[in-house]
Amino acid sequence: MRLVRDALLEPDVKLADRMTELAVSALLQLPQIDGTADRPLNSLLVVCTPEPRPGLPAKIAETVGAAISQRLRRTNLRVQSLAQGHAAGLVGFGLAAKALDEGRADVAAVVGVDSYHDINTLGWMDETGQLKSEVNRDGFFPGEGAGACLLVRADVAKALRLTPLARLTAISTALETITINSEEVCVGEGLSAAFLGLAPVVEAANQQITDTYCDLNGQRYRSEELVYSAMRANHLFAPEVETTHPADCWGDVGASSGPLFVSLALAASQKGYCRGSRAALWAGSGTGRRAVALLDFPAANPEAA
Asked: What are the Beta-ketoacyl synthase-like N-terminal domain coordinates in residue numbering (predicted)?
């Protein structure tokens, strides 16, 4: 069985502990922001984890969230757990942005973490035809990883002298009723609805999407879903839109997809190899949740923007 695993974690580390270590490592790379004695910052941490599956401990989101909170030991920190699979990180961005907009938090961190490093999980994947192998082309290589992003209100960023790297412009979610385990043919209605939810923002600014980052992992279901969705939402994308699906490099990273996509989009923007300055990040969970995030970056490649 082929899989991608973190090189610093021993193979016998239990799954919940693996995910905690991965998540904490990602969070510690974020800017460490503290308030003042007069005005302590209200912080929100959204912990995004896989959906229930064989080999995954029950209530893994709550378990990892509690372990992270104990490790960080930060005051005025509220933790929210979200076990929604591949789309969890992007859904988490929406929850964090809403909390910031409503003044319930000054800063919010979204961490997505996942790991398939469990023999029961791998056995289940193999039995259900999800594990890519020499005899099964319609599967994927499982991975593990974590990504974290810090979201800050504009006034707080200015007060703390933080320079924003990107702007979360919009979040759109929808539900696909014909999931990957259904016997019916999926024609991408859920993903289409999620994309089309961005239409008012894209059309108002007359600025099409130039780059996309997605969780295509080699499964035919996901590829066909995208084809149907792209036909319905084609007007939202620039003619030469760039599509990046990093699962072919780092494996399927599940619930950590959204935050890790942000890191790739940031790198492309800062190093100037993106198509333009507007990126769409999208992912789909096994139970049907579809989510798309729209990010705007400083124009690193003016000729392509």
From this structure: 87-155
